[in-house]
Specification:
- The complex is a heterodimer of chains A (221) and B (222).
- In chain A, 42% of the residues are buried.
- In chain A, strands 1, 2, 3, 4, 5 and 6 form a 6-stranded antiparallel sheet that branches.
- Chain A has 221 residues and is α+β, with helices and mostly antiparallel strands.
- In chain A, helix 1 packs parallel to helix 4 (68-82) and helix 2 crosses helix 4.
- Chain A contains 8 helices and 6 strands; from the N terminus they run ααααααβββαβαββ.
- Helix content of chain A is 31%, strand content 17%.
- With 222 residues, chain B is mostly helical.
- Chain B is 44% helix and 11% strand.
- Chain B contains 12 helices and 4 strands.
- Chain B has helices at residues 26-40, 46-59, 62-74, 76-84, 86-91, 126-129, 134-137, 139-144, 149-155, 192-196, 201-205, 213-221; strands spanning 102-107, 112-117, 165-170, 175-180.
- The radius of gyration of chain B is 20 Å and the shape is globular.
- The chains are: A alpha+beta (221), B mainly alpha (222).
- The interface between A and B is large, with 100 and 95 residues.
Chain lengths: 221, 222
């Protein structure tokens, strides 16, 4: 979706403010927001693509006016309500009004380290040969889906070249909407800045994205 | 620790309340209320929440990545492995898992400088760099890294010659990128531990270079 999360190429946000390496959290509530998000995710009620979509479907004004962990909490609330784990009334009242819905058991403290170390690999065995090969010219589709996508606006309808074939990966555009993994070949596609930004493009800049096969079509050499 | 970090879109002071009177910010109350709900309903275990926080405060951070880079500088076989199969090479040092399931290492060269961004959210290689800094998740960085990376780098104090090619990696999938900065001159024969001390978080995102040991010597002498 063409939401506020799709920021590449926008202007006017001002300079980047660096920060020292040791500053992991800036408030105690940020720690709780991170931990709640991870522990809730471990219930297996949604996947990472659904999480991203919950955040990007915040109103654009809300998204940009919120700090990052605020966005996470607002996204988490949406997921919890959608999965009927908590109700909007419970969130508004800050108290339990309904019996909990049965779920898998909560993540135990002893399982935190192994769970984080294992992660959630998103690659899948290939079922068909890759359509494109390294070095081939491709063009991204000019698409504007109303649902989740990982093809940013600035890289739509652009001609680039396949630089690597990453393998077969879960397709977020389907997975975010509960349509299953629908795994596809994933490619590293590289564009010269002039293709993305026209005459303002830095002549010594290349930008790459990781693009699923259905984002691409073959292009003339 | 009751502050409200700047919004993603930048700090325009329009809607922020600092609560200098010691009161709790709205978001602090909101998170606290949600945590209580989730614990009371039995969906999360408070001890697990503490363990998650402790992990990212004390165990998983950019010193992990610095050890990967130092090993790559010091050990040509490891460097080849890192370039061919970064997930396995990094895993051999004990760093794996969440947000680092599929790693790719990209080496800076004398001619090419690499910079990593996630324009769509905040994808970042957690097992080697820890949680991303605020700037990495903010609109100023995410918007400009792909169109004006030289301008962004200049704000980090890094002014590259116009002849240095820049390659920006937008993390739009689950591949996570680790920049391997150039090894500074004058570090021949250094131990991996000494080398790792030269590798900053920013340098592994591409927003900086490895520390010049000459600058450290200057500090020691000063």
């Amino acid at each position: 979706m063409n939401g506020a999360q799709d920021l590449g190429g926008m202007m006017g946000f001002g300079p980047v403010a660096g920060e020292p390496e040791g500053e992991v959290f800036h408030a105690d509530w940020e720690k709780r927001a991170l931990a709640l998000t991870i522990a809730s995710g471990a219930l297996g009620e949604w996947n990472i693509d659904m999480s991203r979509h919950a955040r990007e479907t915040l109103h654009p004004t809300d998204y940009l006016a919120s700090s990052y962990y605020e966005v996470w909490i607002k996204g988490l609330e949406k997921l919890l309500v959608a999965r009927e784990l908590v109700t909007s009334e419970e969130i508004a009242a800050s108290s339990v009004l309904h019996a909990p819905r049965p779920t898998s058991p909560p993540l135990a403290a002893a399982d935190v380290a192994p769970t984080l170390a294992k992660g959630t690999p998103c690659d899948r065995p290939p079922q068909a040969p890759a359509r494109f090969k390294v070095g081939q010219a491709v063009r991204t589709l000019n698409v504007n889906p109303s649902g989740h996508t990982r093809l940013p606006r600035y890289a739509r309808g652009k001609r680039g070249r396949i630089e690597r074939v990453h393998g077969v990966f879960i397709f977020p555009d389907a997975n975010a909407h509960g349509l299953g993994p629908s795994a596809q070949w994933l490619y590293l596609v590289c564009f010269p800045a002039s293709e993305l930004w026209g005459r303002e493009g830095d002549p010594a800049l290349d930008v790459s994205i990781d693009a699923w096969e259905s984002y691409l079509e073959g292009a003339a050499e | 620790m009751g502050s409200v970090p700047p919004p993603i879109g930048g700090d325009n002071h329009a809607h922020r309340h600092d609560h200098d009177d010691g009161g709790l910010a709205d978001i602090e109350l909101r998170v606290r209320a949600l945590e209580s709900l989730m614990i009371e309903k039995g969906y999360v275990d408070p001890a697990a929440l503490d363990a998650i926080v402790e992990t990212y405060e004390t165990k998983i951070g950019p010193r992990n990545g610095a050890r990967v880079v130092a090993r790559s500088w010091a050990d040509p076989a490891f460097r080849r492995w890192l370039n061919e199969d970064a997930t396995a090479a990094i895993g051999s040092l004990g760093y794996s898992g969440r947000q680092g399931e599929h790693m790719t290492a990209v080496e800076n060269t004398a001619d090419v400088h690499n910079l990593v961004v996630c324009t769509l959210c905040s994808c970042y290689p957690w097992p080697v760099l820890g949680l991303p800094p605020v700037w990495y998740k903010s609109a100023p960085y995410r918007s400009r890294a792909v169109i004006d990376p030289r301008g962004v780098l200049a704000e980090f104090g890094l002014r590259l010659p116009a002849s240095t090619k820049i390659r920006v990696w937008d993390s739009t999938a689950e591949i996570r990128y680790l920049v391997v900065p150039l090894r500074p001159a004058g570090t021949e024969g250094w131990s991996e531990e000494r080398l790792a001390a030269l590798v900053s978080r920013d340098s592994m995102v591409g927003a900086g270079l490895a520390t010049d040991p000459a600058s450290l010597a200057g500090e020691a002498a000063a």
